[in-house]
Amino acid sequence: MYDPPLKSHRNSQHRFGAQNIRGSLDYPFNRSLKISFIPGIAFLNIASRDSIDVPPSPSAELRLTATGPLDAERALDYFVRGGVRGDYTQIHSGGRALHYMTVNLMGGGGFIFKLKTATQWQFHPFFGVFYSNIWQNTSTSRQLLVNDTYNLFTGEVGVEIQASPTTHIIGSVAFSFETSEIIYNVGINFH
């Protein structure tokens, strides 16, 4: 899933890279509906001339996903996903701390094409389009700097590879339709 960028305070211009580690705890209600709790932590590396310290940044997401067959003959499925995600980042610079809090309310859907092989390996390419309403709050301990909402249209394309009945490898590219940002995701699911 696409992680929206931190919009920095208008007077500060920093470029940063982030490595996210996220896990997923899934509970299937039935074969077509599941809920997922996705905690995570991000490690940010900010390129700046100033001395900047960024502790690890926590996040949590609650997601509901429904899937179903669209065309049984061609093994084409659909998915619909909705969720809410919260992120917190603290940046220490010049003797003060900035607090970035973001809440992302997201919904969207897409298609999964199931390619079966003669072996246990199966390939499931997918594509999805999502809409997010994002609330962002930036503050110091004493002053509110930014309290803003914005909308974002994103897409994700990738493939899920079933290496064994209990192991799935997922690779995807998430992108924004409005900016040039691209995020690469790699994951392993164990059942």
Provide structural commentary.
The two termini are 20 Å apart. The chain contains no helices and twelve strands. Strands 1, 2, 3, 4, 5, 6, 7, 8, 9, 10, 11 and 12 form a twelve-stranded antiparallel β-sheet that branches. It has strands spanning 15-22, 25-28, 33-47, 52-53, 57-71, 76-93, 96-113, 115-116, 122-139, 144-164, 167-176, 182-190. It has one domain (15-190): Beta Barrel (Lipocalin), CATH 2.40.128.90. Residues 6-13 have low confidence and may be disordered. With 191 residues, it is mainly β.
Which features does this protein show?
Lipocalin; mainly beta
Q: What is the assigned CATH homologous superfamily?
A: OMPT-like
CATH architecture: Beta Barrel
Order of helices and strands: EEEEEEEEEEEE
CATH class (first level) name: Mainly Beta
CATH fold description: Lipocalin
Approximately how much helix is present in the residues?
Answer: under 10%
Tell me which oligomeric state these chains represent.
single chain
What structural category do the secondary elements indicate? Answer: mainly beta
Number of helices: 0
What is the total domain count?
Answer: 1
Uncertain parts: 6-13
Instruction: Determine Rg (CA atoms, Å).
Output: 19 Å
Q: What fraction strand?
A: over 45%
Query: How far apart, in Å, are the first and last alpha carbons?
Result: 20 Å
Outline:
elongated
Give the overall average pLDDT.
84
